Protein: SSD domain-containing protein
Amino acid sequence: MNMSCLPNSHTDNVLIGVLLTQVLSEGQVQPGQCAFYEECGKNPSIENPLIPPIVPCLSYTPARALKGAHYLKLKSVCPMLDRGENATLACCSIKQLRSLELSLTLSKAVLIRCPSCAENFAHLHCINTCSPNQTQTVNVTETRNVTYMGTNVKVVLGYQAYLSTAFAEGSFKSCQNVRIPATGGFAISTMCGRYGAKLCTAQRWYDFQGDSSNGLAPLDIDFKLIPPGVTAGVPAGMVPYNGRTLRCNETTPTGGEVCSCQDCQESCPLMPPPVMPAGPFRLMGTDGFLVISILLLCLLLVAFLLYLLVSCWVKPLIDPSEVSCTDKNSLAAQEFLGSLFQSWGTLMASHPLKVLLAAAIVVAVFATGLMYIELTTDPVQLWSAPNSRARKEKDFHDKYFDPFFRTNQLILTAPGRKGHIYDSLLFGRQNFSGILEKDLLTQLLALQTRIQFWSSDLNRTATLKDVCFAPLNPSNPGMTDCAVNSLLQYFQNNVTNLDAKVNMTELGVTKEVDWRDHFIYCVNSPLSFKDITDLGMSCMADYGAPVFPFLAVGGYENEDFTNAEALILTFSLNNYNRDDPRFKVALEWEQIFLNIVQEYQRDPSNNFTFAYMAERSLEDEINRTTSEDIPIFMISYLVIFIYIAVALGEYTSFKRILVDSKFLVGLGGILVVGCSVLASMGFYAWIGIPSSLIILQVVPFLVLAVGADNIFIFVLEHQRDVRRLGETREMQIGRVLGNVAPSMLLCSVSESICFFLGALSTMPAVKSFALYAALAVLMDFLLQMTAFVALLSLDARRQDSNRCELVCCVRVGTRRPMKPNEGLLMPLMRKYYAPVLLHPVSRVVVMVVFVIMFCCSIFLMFHVTVGLDQELAMPQGSYMLEYFKYLYKYFEVGIPTYFVTTKGFNFTSAAGMDAVCSSVGCDQFSLTQKIQYATEYPELSYLAVPANSWVDDFIDWLNPGSKCCRLYTLGSETGNFCPATAWVCGKRCIKAPANGVVRPTVEQFNRFLPDFLVTSRCRHGDDLSSAVSPGVRSLRFGCSQRCRVCLRPAATRFMAYHTSLTNSQEFTKALEKTRELAHNITMGMREVPGTAPDFEVFPYTVTYAFYEQYLTIVPEGLFNISLCLLPTFVVCCLLLGMDLRSGLLNLFTIIMITVDTVGIMTLWGIDYNAVALINLVTAVGISVEFVSHLTRSFALSIQLTHIERAKEATATMGSAVLAGVAMTNLPGIIVLAFAKAQLIQIFFFRLNLIITLLGMAHGLIFLPVLLSYFGTEKHLCDGQTRCFLCPHHPTTVQYTVR
Structure:
């Protein structure tokens, strides 16, 4: 390629050279002697070259002394040969120098990022072409007689070039790491043929340059690299050239700057190794949390043991004379609440029909808001707050750039299909895996073109071009403009190219080359516009961009692409706004794509095993599983209803079963719960707060648990009560309500305030759930105090009349017994359960076991996995699960990520460009350079491919050494920008700088940037039109020349690639690390003069909005749960008359339930995430039901000892809690185990089962024992001779204290 020349007219020098050649003896080797001189036409043996293969005339003549224009041209092209005018000898004519200059321009376009590399490259070919001692380094091996301009001349078609290994290796090393920013690959890979960058050596590099079959070299050059001191194989008189090469970290003699760090490792500053992530917390050489948990366990057990020892000296009896002010306040509070609710209950029971009608009207008014309900299904809106950083960055990105394109993908494999060995003429023996077979590629090509359909929105047949992402022609795309990435794009999706084959001769061997040779070349040189085979095909995709091998094939190791196990086919569609008609067309296209793929998958003749997905797949599958699991939820609620209806009955005799049953009461209780949920949803729909599927699934379950508990407490208390003498039915119901309503108020107010405080969460899904749940619980309490009281009054009237349920006209003769009905559970718990539980030995065992469980859960809590893998959102059996499996197995890199710059940075200044670019003259700590440093530690940075840079490409495009930026020199357009495709562009846009550092002036930057953005060639094929915000392009076409001088991008972006990320933990760490990197870049760029103080660089990719929550979800969860725990303590203290001890015990038990829940989550493989947080907030609410009723019952007991009070509370209130909360929840929860959705199975079945079982265990086992040791000392006596009448115990009698 060094000898490439352009045809020119001959002069008399040719004839002189020919005559001299005939006079001198051929083969003469001596200093100052030439082997060839001047140009003698084209090489007749080369067909279809990329440049005219001009060859020199054989001419053994003395070297010529140069002067004038000849000398100046040599000084410009080959400065290393300059010895001064008239003192410089050379073996090349001025026309040869011009041709050499043009030839070197091709290589400099790739190597100019490193001036010393470009200088060394030019040095080699200057020596071969122009050295005054040419015969000492060049040995002509092949000549041919040709007729040139009517004269028979002998031309050189091949020669040997002798180089010392020191020179060759030095030159190669200076170029070895020069990169192409657009791909992140190495320039050497395009200049080393079949070996690519990985296997390239100095010898292979020179061999490719000297191979005339590469389309660039005009003749064959056999480079002989001779080690120092070796003479074997060196012809007599030959001296291998051993000139000085420049290291890549050296400046060039002409003033060129040292190469950048990205292109030259020697130029890199000494960087300290990255800080390794902190290891696990350790104490004394072991897990620190384990040590803390053990110490806490020992502390609690020792404290409990000391308490037992001290308590032996304290009498357990209560001294009635010790009545504190707090006790009196408690009694007053209970008396006030009891009388208030008694009056209220009597009023409601006296007018049941009016109350029911009024309640129905209120609920109906609220429920009408459901007409305006909005159901949020977009995961971004669910889990990312509008004012969160990720959402703001997403909105900024989508404002200035198009939204992230929609991805539709196929990953195909052919398991069990045998591969084959292909003996390539150019690349040697290569193993091709079973998936890389021509028949399979042909099938894949046919599959690509099948998708078309009738679109009602477009009123015509729609195809891919109507919705595709077309980066280089977005305004009017054709099918070949669509961004479709696959292996077939190496053949431009053309079956003719895939079938192409040709015979080719290489080193005297002739073989057939076909698609396999082209594939091998393209995966190693994806930016090539022409391969090195005689096929001469481009590697670029039909839409004008490169297809990097990691986007075309997968499942390979160490860049062994021919052994890939999978083919990857990706369709990219425009991501239109949802209100854009084209959005529907895109959805239709994706649905047709899924239908065709699924049909193809069912075809028995298909040879592929594959996985697939469309952009719509995630949302479709979630919606599908939601609709499929609705019957499961309905069955769950039906089971709960049947249980409530059966369990509420009294069943005093067989004849009265239909009278004493509570089917309608149970149905009424369910309706109350349903109405409260409808009222809550309707109210928030009125005020514009959207709902979600989580609210529809969780809130009814939560309110049902709370409501069922209150229903059981109220109904069972009514059944256990006996109407007093002279008391009406309504008065009895009022009195019973006065007994239990304060307890119901305590729980409902605690839970409602708990959820209202939970609405302070920044997560939209958690916030809306908390709001809906808080109002639903409050409405449930209000409806229970009104509608359910009225309903119970009607049912009591029916029961008193001995009328059967459902058939009220039928009466039963057997009358209702006039004695309290304690049911089945209360006697069992009083007679057996409570005595066993509160036995001295049992109490100690219970305390020790629960303390151990609490400490173990603390240890496990610190090891819970944070995150939510996207596979869990899919139902079992979903095709998306197979896709995720293939994705993690076969993809070698992860998703692209953009480093986006905001306004306020001056890209037009030299300092601004230096702070961004990575080529020669750029800052060693520029934006792209810092990203490059990060990719060197992918296991820490989670970045695999460095960022491409439109600034670097713009600089390369402006480089005078390239053919990209030229100006018209003829016609009316003289002085205007001239496209690279035109042939009348004789003037460069900017002059070549002496130091090789191309930096446009501000005027040049603003003048040529718009031309650069709309030019499709000379941009390495990447989507530079989307690298700068569309606002820049609009200014380009809408402003005057004066306005364009002020042009500044409002936003730019630089695309890199993450490593392959397989779980939410890796996605979260990737977000964290890229933000750290972006912050570091921001701080550096703000130091550039003229940068705005609010300028920022931030990373963006489509997944960040989902995973940002996991950066803060632990403190967010602690904050929300703490807010929920606060009202449980405060309300308990207030409603029990400032009873701090009861409030603290109540709070401690709920904390234990929450901690133990998280601990068992760790054991059962339930990750901590926003869905789990919602359930944990729910757990606090349900725990209140398990705990607070029992705590209040203990506090109001008039028994003399803690144990007796605990027994009474366990028997009376514990039985109601067991029947109302535990036994209501469990049947419904167990039904959820049959749901198809993994989210429901894990976060609703498993987690709610844990919450219910732990709540039951702590409320019915641990809490009675805890109260028996540490419960409040207060009682209901006034310290003299009588006890107050406790609203909770109306049958209490006066007694005298002795």
Summary: The longest helix spans residues 764-800.
